[in-house]
Amino acid sequence: MGADQKSAGLCVEAPPPRKRVLILGGGFAGMYAALHLERQVGTRDDVEVTLVSRDNFFLFTPMLHEVAASDLNATAIVISLRKLLPHLTFVEGDVSGLDLEAKKVTVAHGGLDGHSHTLAYDYVVLAMGSETNFFGKPGPRDRALTMKTLGDALLLRNCLVDRLEEADADCVATGERNPIVTFVVVGGGFAGVETAGAINDFIHGALPYYPNIQHANVRVMLVHGGKEVLPELGEDLGAYTRKKLIEHGVEVRTGIHVKDVTEAGVELPDGTVVPTKTVVWTAGVTPPSLLETLPCEKERGRLKVNERMEVPGFPGVWALGDCASVPDVTNGGKPCPPTAQHALRQGLAVARNVCAALKGQPGKPFRYRMLGQLAAIGQRAGVARILGLKFSGTFAWVLWRTIYLFKLPSLETKVRVAMGWTLDLLFHKDVVQLIGPRELDQLTLPALPLNSRQQVRQVQALQPRTQH
């Protein structure tokens, strides 16, 4: 009997190894891919899905300008990835190495005194987003703020209050423009227009608390290299946006490419300098530099993929979102625009293709026809083009808020945002500095220019980890 049991025991086969799926990036593309996989394979024992992200939260980037303008609390537009994806493995860190041949990823975390991990995979989804494009100009890189992360929005908000405090203590002649409260936004796309409108609303809404600053002392400028702002919406809505911004007090200059950003201010091509201490750079994005090391075909720096978002030559590798050039089969194969609504749908489509690959089946092409685009331009006004129809004014602003409220990924964030908007309608702007100038001065090395990305890291280091 014992021999029979022993013999039977020898016949027991070991369970097959778990399939390892890595998702690199916690933005719209990566998070929604992870969210779909959470629902489909999150509880399976034969599949392990790991999400790698530099932040432990998902950030709803379309509302970043509202955090900068004090319309929303920072925690209202973020949600913990661990809370959102309870059945997946999460690793916080920066992807510092990627070997597609060996199927290994190196993840670094812990700051300057941190360490690295090597993660092996069977399937990998590259959703690494993009970085601010400074077009090789050291001036903007070292001296301008950006609007890509939660730290950027917090830093800008803190900077706006700091400028008001500084200007209020200075002696300024009535009607004279003051460089301290001159704010220049470079780039007239969605991020630039919404940021300029938010800055203008915040500054003028806060002036009642600063008696030594007059409205005439303040200058908010938007500089755009194209013919019209918001080119994605067409010239008519772009012209309307420019007109409304000017009515709100924003100085709009189109057809101008900024030459440089110096200590004196923003230098224009004709040699004139706009004196300012605050420049926000939203002039474009570029793929992560790590992609340059990959032996893959690229298109303008983005990974070129097929209609199923597969990277040619590397089975089991998908790329999507801002870091990939995804062909739009509904538009003659032209690359999909790097918008949140495309990244969201690409994430869902890739997750379905990963599930198909786990079953040994081929994936399906990505198909999505854009429904429309919206932008908030300040003073409770907006512009929108939806299903070919154009909207503007207060109705478009309400439409913007309604649509994006329903796009938030959880009931908790929807409630937080709705409450924040309600409080914003009832009360004046909050002019509390989240980080005082002394703390920032202590963090700054006197002999080393501190660019905005370094500042963001430092600001985030002082903020408590986002937990809900």
UniProtKB/TrEMBL annotation:
Domain named FAD/NAD(P)-binding: residues: 20-347
Q: Which UniProt keywords apply?
A: FAD, Flavoprotein, NAD, Oxidoreductase, Transit peptide
- Pfam families according to UniProt: NDH2_C, Pyr_redox_2
Keyword check for Hydrolase: no
Superkingdom, natural source: Bacteria
GO molecular function terms attached to this record = NADH dehydrogenase (quinone) (non-electrogenic) activity
Q: Where is the External alternative NADH-ubiquinone oxidoreductase-like C-terminal domain?
A: 371-428
What EC number(s) would the UniProt record show?
Answer: 1.6.5.9
Q: Could you tell me what reaction this enzyme catalyses? A: a quinone + NADH + H(+) = a quinol + NAD(+)
Q: Which SUPFAM superfamilies match?
A: FAD/NAD(P)-binding domain
Q: Which family does this protein fall into? A: Belongs to the NADH dehydrogenase family.
Protein's name according to its UniProt entry: NADH:ubiquinone reductase (non-electrogenic)
